[in-house]
Amino acid sequence: MIARASCCRAVAARLRILCPSFPVNNHIRKSYSYSRAAEPYCMLYRGAEEDDGTALLSLTNTALPESLAPGEVLGRILLATICGSDLHTFAGTRKEATPSVLGHEAISEVVRSNRDGVSAGQRVTFSVASSCTECRLCRIGLPQKCTALVKYGHCLYTDSDQLNGCYASHILLRSGTPVVPIPASLSNATAAPLNCALATMVHAVDRIEHLSPTTASAGQQHCALVQGAGLLGVYGVALLKQRGFTTVYCSDVDRSRLATVERFGATPVLIENADSLRNVVQPSSMDAVFEVCGQKSVLADGLHSLRCGGSYVLVGMVHPDSALPFTAEDIVRKCATVVGVHNYNEEHLRKAVQFLDDTASVFPYGLLVSPPYKLSELLDAIAAAKTQQFHRVSLQP
Hints:
Elements: H1 4-11, E1 16-18, E2 28-29, E3 41-47, E4 56-61, E5 73-81, H2 84-91, E6 105-113, E7 123-126, E8 129-130, H3 136-139, E9 150-151, E10 170-173, E11 179-181, H4 188-191, H5 197-206, E12 223-227, H6 231-242, E13 247-252, H7 255-262, E14 267-270, E15 286-291, H8 299-305, E16 306-314, H9 328-333, E17 337-340, H10 346-359, E18 373-374, H11 378-387, E19 394-396
Parallel strand pairs: 1-4, 12-13, 12-15, 13-14, 15-16, 16-17, 18-19
Antiparallel strand pairs: 1-2, 3-4, 5-6, 5-10, 5-19, 6-7, 7-11, 8-9
Helix pairs in contact: 1-11, 5-6, 5-10
């Protein structure tokens, strides 16, 4: 594991944490030798990095609800993981409401429940989004686009709404939030990131079901390309291999990440120059291509490698700098399908849990998540996440 002292030095100029008291003391501490705040508590995000290179965070006491509304579930966070989107927020490149409790990937233990089928003591995962279940988008299977959507880790912290992120001791799950039990066979570290990256990739791979070996012609070679070896890419490769794809290429600029994704069945392609992918992957040879890196520079190569009638699934381009480098004619002449995937619904979350349970002894999931940092050591955890030694860095309240 990365030495925590060196991690702290690497990020000390970038962040600062306020004293853990409520109300918050204005004194700024450059270190964090203080003890953990008494439960319940959260790490409150108060703004992106300032001109002097700092971000404001405070370990803050909060309160548990005296009673639960119908359908609500109160959980104690067992383990959370730091998603790349939160790193963007700390860096100021992604804007969030402030103050807020960041974090949306976690496993929790049910403390109290006012929902049928969910009981105290259960270990559960949950959707990153809560929906109304009644609007048109919810009814057509897109609850993640609900007109009254609430996303955990992206909410304003108020007097009446505090337990809405995962960098905390507890979380209050709303009635419109899917909650799924975690099998005893899965560790907290294996299961914690599944409600973001894995469930999203289940959705993405489901979108090419008509091209998979289970439904397409038997006896043929089935090939796919995954562009990006981050956690989305690792899960994408594993899902495609489990569904019977003969060859799954995975391209990235990072040798170490390619070495990891190879352990999940990928044929790695190191991108060193503009010709790297085309020197390995033949034109019009891939049944499906998945963009999961968020870089528009890969898109031309992706479409170039896609066969006629194939599908190009875009997952990582969730930002404005994402103009497509090809024309409608390029798509039409290939009879290609271009699909956008953003988040997931309850079916995908349940499939993600089942997939992990089915493949826990097949793939080395233990490589992906760091040993846990305490929530009060968030400085070190962020520094570790930035090194990309692990696909996810974990936090234990």
